[in-house]
């Protein structure tokens, strides 16, 4: 086992975390621009949302249970538990950072949802009066809690927490699509908001890192990170292929499409939602051992 003292102000670590902020922010802007401000993006989103009717009767129960479990009370309770875990580990700065991550991500989502405009291209007249729905609030709740939990867990429990958290957050994002509450881009944007806040939290953790902090190479969890990252990337590629195939079809009203393109749009978008969460969690898992290292003694 190789253990070394951290260079708290190490240029490489600072640059990597800063790049994570910029890359995920740029990805958010790209998703927002394409999905909301182009006719093709709105059409693809609406096709996927219309496809949720396929098999909906069989999944209504689980979807309702997942979404109904998320409320202001449950978010406050989860935040308190996460802060408590950090405090009993003697990590005050970590408790503050995890709390700021959850509060900041959810506040940002609500500000964006009500602050961003959605042009009307006449593609989804049933929901035009609902206005902008990007990012998804429910998805942000699930993803922010999942990421914050991974930050505060001890190294021996991080892998389990990462897989369970990513699975839960991905299920929540897909559930908002299955229930007809949100378009796929809303869930993807929510994960990216959480990813940006996680990276900003990483910068704060670097600032407050103790002099006794030590990086242990065994805490890097490279295999788990690769599984999440590569699996997520493959799912996103599958989503891109599905949407590319849809984009080549005649641009008719989504309700007039046959079962096959609706299923491709729905399943492909669900893969993109799950894949994005997997990649965001992989970025957290690959950096957390440097941001929250062991403490000597």
UniProtKB/TrEMBL annotation:
Keywords: Membrane, Transmembrane, Transmembrane helix
Transmembrane segments annotated in the record for this chain: 12-35, 66-87, 94-116, 136-153, 160-182, 188-208, 220-246, 266-288
Keyword Transmembrane: yes
Domain Phosphatidic acid phosphatase type 2/haloperoxidase: 94-202
Entry keyword Membrane: yes
Top-level taxon of origin: Bacteria
Protein name, per record: Phosphatase PAP2 family protein
